[in-house]
Amino acid sequence: xxxxxxxxxxxxxxxxxxxxxxxxxxxxxxxxxxxxxxxxxxxxxxxxxxxxxxxxxxxxxxxxxxxxxxxxxxxxxxxxxxxxxxxxxxxxxxxxxxxxxxxxxxxxxxxxxxxxxxxxxxxxxxxxxxxxxxxxxxxxxxxxxxxxxxxxxxxxxxxxxxxxxxxxxxxxxxxxxxxxxxxxxxxxxxxxxxxxxxxxxxxxxxxxxxxxxxxxxxxxxxxxxxxxxxxxxxxxxxxxxxxxxxxxxxxxxxxxxxxxxxxxxxxxxxxxxxxxxxxxxxxxxxxxxxxxxxxxxxxxxxxxxxxxxxxxxxxxxxxxxxxxxxxxxxxxxxxxxxxxxxxxxxxxxxxxxxxxxxxxxxxxxxxxxxxxxxxxxxxxxxxxxxxxxxxxxxxxxxxxxxxxxxxxxxxxxxxxxxxxxxxxxxxxxx
Length: 430
Ligand code: PMP
Fold this sequence. Notes:
Belongs to the class-III pyridoxal-phosphate-dependent aminotransferase family. By secondary structure, this protein is an alpha/beta fold.
């Protein structure tokens, strides 16, 4: 079917289908390229929103998934366990930097991992509250909507949210929130709203994802570790977007040397197969009763086969080094753009978790969300998928596969540059 025919079906039968601006239907994909239903070739700088760090349909993952399909597709692991689940648990326990010996529960999505992390923290501490952060994003289930640092568009239409969720500022000096101020805000939240005697966990992303790709300073993460220890609260680190090699290490928290109690992960762990994980210190993970965590599909054998293949690819193809190298390349390009364009500011990257902010006034860091939207639209017309994000909607984030071929990367970056030139005029220094 053509894009036009498929769009017609989408508008008629898909919830919110008419409101969604994406109109090209993916037909086939390989590494950083997608071909749509009409045969157009598109460069993918979104990687399925951070899911495809090793590229679309990595051959080793495809092979492992196919082999698994020929063996067993589903049992529900509580009814009859299978090798893939326990092997994934073993492997994740070994690579995830949580305190002590780690145990693992698998789920299907990032939001579900966060839900379960909060369940574990409540069971382990006997306490109820969680503290989350401005700009944070954790999902679209009720608990995670309550935990998000932003109401619209996620929670705006769905009535009241679960309670026991309190918020603190995330340090983003670029937007005027210093590390000291953020820590003061956190301590204030603990003194006023969220009594530490009833607070089970502090939950945060080590680098804000949807909130704009701002990394938390190592000293801030260390301070949170200390506060958690002082009050018997768990430190839950959400690595759904930053994990699995995006930042040049397996997990972004490794840049700080801090060991949290629980890490949640999803996205790039299975190259597109749906799966997520909660990895935490054994005593906490074992705190709730048998059959209290999980669900019918959690840790599907097919997704588990994909995770094991992804972990092999990380070792065999030096994915962490590739992530570092890509980040450095992007960082250099950002510097050039910042000199070239008045509207490009704050180029930054932790490994390949890389972003720029678009502004209308560089000195004042005034966000220009309209320009970010226009850039993404113009790039899409030229055959490049580009994503914006951030509390102010003016961050352009780069989540292409770290395995992207140099020519494809250059071609994509040239489209960004060309689109910017068209939108803001030819820069004087170009
Ligand atoms: N946490 C973070 C940090 C995320 O970036 C996301 C997704 N963007 C989620 C949780 C939710 O994951 P999912 O969409 O798989 O539920």
